Amino acid sequence: MSQGSSKIVPVILAGGSGTRLWPASRDAFPKQFQPLTGDLSTYQETLRRVADPALFDDPVVITSDAFRFFARRQAADVGVKATVVLEPARRDSAAAVAAAAAFVEKTRPGSAVLALAADHVVLDDEVFRDAVRLGLTAAEAGKIVVFGLVPTEPKTAYGYIRPGAALDGDDDLCLVDAFVEKPDATTALDYLRQGYLWNSGNFLFKASHMLAEFGKYAPDIAAAASEAVDKASEDIGFVRLDPDAFSTARKTSIDYAVIEKTDEIAVVKGRFRWSDVGAWDAIWQVSERDGEGNAVHGDGVVLASHDCLVHSQGILTTVVGAEGLLVVATPDAVMVAPREQAQAVKGLVDALKAGGRDEATLHRRDYRPWGYIEALVAGPRFAVKHIVVDPGGVLSLQRHQHRAEHWVVVNGTATIEIEGEAPRLLTINQSAYVPLGARHRLSNRGKIPLELIEVQSGAYLGNDDIERIEDIYQRA
Amino acid sequence: MSQGSSKIVPVILAGGSGTRLWPASRDAFPKQFQPLTGDLSTYQETLRRVADPALFDDPVVITSDAFRFFARRQAADVGVKATVVLEPARRDSAAAVAAAAAFVEKTRPGSAVLALAADHVVLDDEVFRDAVRLGLTAAEAGKIVVFGLVPTEPKTAYGYIRPGAALDGDDDLCLVDAFVEKPDATTALDYLRQGYLWNSGNFLFKASHMLAEFGKYAPDIAAAASEAVDKASEDIGFVRLDPDAFSTARKTSIDYAVIEKTDEIAVVKGRFRWSDVGAWDAIWQVSERDGEGNAVHGDGVVLASHDCLVHSQGILTTVVGAEGLLVVATPDAVMVAPREQAQAVKGLVDALKAGGRDEATLHRRDYRPWGYIEALVAGPRFAVKHIVVDPGGVLSLQRHQHRAEHWVVVNGTATIEIEGEAPRLLTINQSAYVPLGARHRLSNRGKIPLELIEVQSGAYLGNDDIERIEDIYQRA
């Protein structure tokens, strides 16, 4: 094994959203943060894959404001200390990679960067790390290294790479002859015969070298990203890129901006099993399956069926006498499609969005910096919520114009402040009433999660009837 | 039109349960009481079908103890004044029909009886009533009249009738040559060619005549049923057949006991569209369908699919790119099957029952004489319920050994009694606490439904921790 002068800094690109995995993945809580094939999200699995301290430094996560608390919480849940960098606007992958390179070069100069998508599945972590070790030599020597995969079938959904001459005498590390776009089925078959590789869209490079290449091929993006990093601010532990600078970056992909232009490029032939889990059929593909080819995640029962995927979040989901079906159930939405129609889910979600359906974008469970709130039932003038506050969590000091609230604690201990009353503790089986218009705040100073049932009552119960007076998460 | 000397008494047989329509139909709330194809249940549609006062008297409903409150409530909801007769034990259709005949003969002597299953769908009510009018002449003249249907396809799921010579010169009213069992596919095709009819299992007869035929062919059942009627008791408005007498009745079908034995039998050729809705494919068959053959009940969205059934109860249910699928979703269970596998749902439910799954038999919403209670969320030491109490409804005076309860009223006004406190009113936005062990009672003396959220807390929250001290519905 050859290793560079410093540890690799993993950069996890976790800002995407995805509708093809609806209803599990929704804009408000997208697929990279969802447990799709097991107990962990692909984001968490990615963090664990690069948690080997012999090879990797602590990771940097690039995401948007909307997902910052997921990103931090889910990293903490798998014991990973991540720096979470916030993109103030969506500017596609070129700006994200440039900012990541600038941030790493500024904070850990001389480092190599492994830029990974947060929503890919790799089934063989050790083989993956072997590929990274192999690529590192080339990266240290000044190449941008892309990860190719030896194809297992003529996929038309992926871009391909034509590998060139071997580097350093290792057939698994080559120059790149060409990048080619997603092929049709016949062409894809030709590509397989000719030894082309799938382009996974993950990269390894010296931060300084990537910045130099940006300087050559996309100096405007390099300048915007560097300035956004230089002027970045710290915000309750997050690194917030400067919005003015970052927003000047051109919207384009890293492939167009640099990868397909630079001569300093190499490819590793990855021999790990990999999927970009772009749609539910890909989830089926990478899942463990029973003797009949059925994959079941969550509370599913499959009878006299084969090659089906059942993905259930908290609702008994059954399939009988079926073949090749995708069945996904969540507490508020169900989706059924044949496997070969997996891509059509996007069109379905578009139709739901056009119809103004909340289920297209929002989950019933709404994550907040302090925990989460889940809708249980709603009537014309009332709503019932299940609220879970993490230890140390503090809700904003707030007031409502249209609703009163009843709180009943069912687990843990709450510290409550209600206007006109002395602050007090509320523990299991105790309740409190928050009159309409009264300032109030709820916090968990205990060691275990605080759970309470909130009954809201009033003529208007929208989320926008929260007047935030103070907020430790700076949402006021 | 020829009409008899008295009005026909409809007798609705509503005691069955059905698993082939799971998860909508469950033992605790079976299909005849479910809105399967529209807003009304098949039981309610049946009641409305025979609500024409020119032809029919008020109906008698025969059902079991478990369903008596559904039967009464759903009849009231469609404005029908039904006498609900309770079978103290399941003794199959012979005993039920004998008891119905005895009950009608005792309470409205000389009447004709129209015995109908509560879970059949008829699409042409007026054509149905024409068939009844046609049959009535024969019934008044001393025949038992069965309703045959002119078949539209060679169904193997139904028994068939070979019609004989026309009666009264009307080809649509004939003697019966033979009853034949469910055929195989080839035989069914032969039956169609030969003019056989489907046997719908519904009958029209003079009560006195049916009793006479029972006396000839099944005198033991006749005796048990008559005694059960003679010794029947009144129970908060229900007629309860005498349990000792009724339970001595032999378990057999009306077909075996009388219909296939008696010579005094005729058949009407029914020309109405009919289905026994035995399984979900039959529901699809009798549903209104869009141009692509899709039927959607409830909150369903079907895209680029054809010949699918979506039946949703309160959860957005979507199908994309599929053909001939049955998709049924309820708040706690989902079932997906190809249409041709509709019968396999029974096996699925058997497997769930064997696995001890509550969802196989119970709904999240549990109907009670006073309204219903629906589970919203449950944790290890707490549970949240949505309770709806009908105007006039009174819960039992009760006490729990293991739980305390919080009540928050969200609609209407509750009268509450809690041990150690004076009875008081609780209205919207007010709450009360019921300490562990305290006797308590909740009632709705108002004019609108009372809705409240109950938060239960304690180490054990099972339904069997209700000690009933007094109960107006005699469940104490």
Automatic annotation (TrEMBL), chains A, B:
Listed GO biological process terms: GDP-mannose biosynthetic process; polysaccharide biosynthetic process
Give the E.C. number(s): 2.7.7.13
What reaction gets catalysed by this protein? alpha-D-mannose 1-phosphate + GTP + H(+) = GDP-alpha-D-mannose + diphosphate
Q: Which GO terms describe its molecular function?
A: GTP binding; isomerase activity; mannose-1-phosphate guanylyltransferase (GTP) activity
**Has the keyword GTP-binding been applied to this entry?**
yes
Query: Quick check: keyword Cytoplasm in the entry?
Result: no
Pfam families hit by this protein: ManC_GMP_beta-helix, MannoseP_isomer, NTP_transferase
Q: Which family does it belong to?
A: Belongs to the mannose-6-phosphate isomerase type 2 family.
Q: What is this protein called?
A: mannose-1-phosphate guanylyltransferase
User: What is the species of this protein?
Assistant: Pleomorphomonas carboxyditropha
